[in-house]
Design brief:
Length: 411
């Protein structure tokens, strides 16, 4: 066999091997795709089965009526906002919280709800949105419960379903050892590891559920003050208390703001003032500033950059939009303060608190002063009483004569 023939034979052999390898690779790919498709079908069937099992389990419990049976929608929405503002948000980590509530659930998120659950109606309003591990989600609207739970067999697949709140008696959160269990009636929907953030979220969330069940929609400043003290701890509260000078002064809001490597600014709103404190990393406090509501000229938020450099301004504006931060601006007659270390929702809450108590202060100062005049004393009538007291031995003759002289002098 000549050299060319040998070369041709080798080339043919190489080509045949390549064809065989390609055919084998194609067969393996098709086999893999077929296995993946089979797995997908099995997981989707399992997800549907699990979703139906969840719904059936919830329906199996005795139901004494809808969870929202005693509450109309407007009343529910108003209380939910007040609860988030006064109970859940103060001293909470806005960026890490597992709980979102009306009206702070963004439209973009609502769009995702509609994509995940076909039955999500345009006429219902999301009340509570919970995020769990493995991208699990739970939404309670004024009409339905929507759930999306990851399969144990493959957490990339989710059992998604919905059930009317008319078939649910109660929601609750129960701590079981080191986890919090979210329950629908007695069925455990999900478990959350009880770290600091989850603990703060779920203790307060349970208060919300209990308030709905008991139709108790009154939140007092005393309740808010007590809750904030529990959240921030005795050490931080003792520092704040140094600057609360009124006997009836209560904390009504607290914002940790953004974390930094060296310090952590926080803002305190009481029913009398706004306090800004810069807590250094070793616990000492510096740069404490106090603004009493009657001295504040205006309070507002800014999200756009104040830089004159267009590139810097656009960059800063983009960053604040992405991180959902903004600047709080407090102005007084003699000074002002700009705070850049707050999330937008925190800064807006501080502005709302200011307007509320500023309005209350103005209302109190405009009330007419009521002067109580003492009724004039009749000297003759008083003299008769003194005479009886002398006869009864209550006062002596000398005391009677001294009082008598005083009364006669007034006639």
């Amino acid at each position: 066999m000549g050299f060319l023939d040998k070369l041709k034979e080798n080339a043919t052999a190489v080509a045949d091997k390549a064809k065989t390898a390609a055919a084998n690779a194609k067969a393996e790919y098709e086999q893999k795709k077929a296995a993946e498709e089979q797995h997908r079908k099995e997981m989707e069937e399992l997800a549907q089965s699990k979703a139906q099992a969840v719904i059936s389990a919830i329906k199996s419990y005795e139901n004494d009526g809808s969870f929202f049976k005693n509450t109309n929608k407007q009343e529910l929405l108003a209380f939910t906002k007040e609860f988030y503002d006064k109970i859940l948000m103060p001293a909470n980590s806005v960026s890490q919280s597992k709980v979102q509530m009306y009206p702070y659930i963004e439209d973009k998120q609502i769009g995702k709800f509609r994509a995940n659950w076909i039955g999500y109606g345009s006429d219902e309003t999301a009340i509570v949105y919970l995020k769990a591990e493995k991208k699990q989600e739970f939404v309670i609207t004024d009409k339905n419960l929507y759930f999306s739970t990851a399969l144990d067999e493959d957490p990339k697949f989710f059992a998604r379903g919905q059930i009317s709140c008319d078939e649910i008696s109660r929601f609750s959160v129960v701590k079981n050892e080191n986890v919090f269990e979210l329950k629908c009636d007695e069925f455990v929907l999900a478990s959350f590891v009880a770290d600091k953030i989850v603990t703060e979220d779920f203790i307060t969330l349970n208060n919300f559920f209990e308030s709905i069940i008991n139709h108790d929609f009154v939140i007092t400043d005393e309740e808010v003050d007590k809750l904030i003290q529990e959240k921030i701890g005795e050490k931080v509260y003792s520092e704040i208390k140094k600057y609360m000078v009124y006997d009836d002064e209560l904390m009504v809001y607290f914002a940790w703001g953004l974390d930094s490597l060296s310090a952590k600014d926080y803002i305190v709103c009481t029913n009398k003032q706004i306090i800004r404190m810069d807590r250094e990393m070793f616990g000492a406090t510096a740069n404490v500033k106090q603004f009493y509501y009657e001295d504040i000229v205006s309070a507002s938020t800014e999200q756009n950059s104040q830089s004159s450099d267009l590139t810097v301004a656009l960059l800063e504006t983009a960053i604040t939009a992405a991180t959902k931060t903004c600047t709080l601006v407090i102005t007084t007659a003699g000074a002002g303060l700009r705070i850049d270390s707050l999330y937008k929702v925190e800064a807006e809450r501080i502005v709302a608190v200011y307007h509320h108590f500023r309005k209350e202060a103005k209302k109190a100062s405009s009330q007419p002063q009521v002067v109580v005049q003492q009724q004039a004393v009749d000297p003759i009538e008083q003299l008769e009483k003194l005479s009886k007291m002398k006869d009864m031995g209550i006062i002596s003759e000398e005391e009677f004569n001294a009082k008598k002289a005083d009364l006669l002098a007034k006639i």
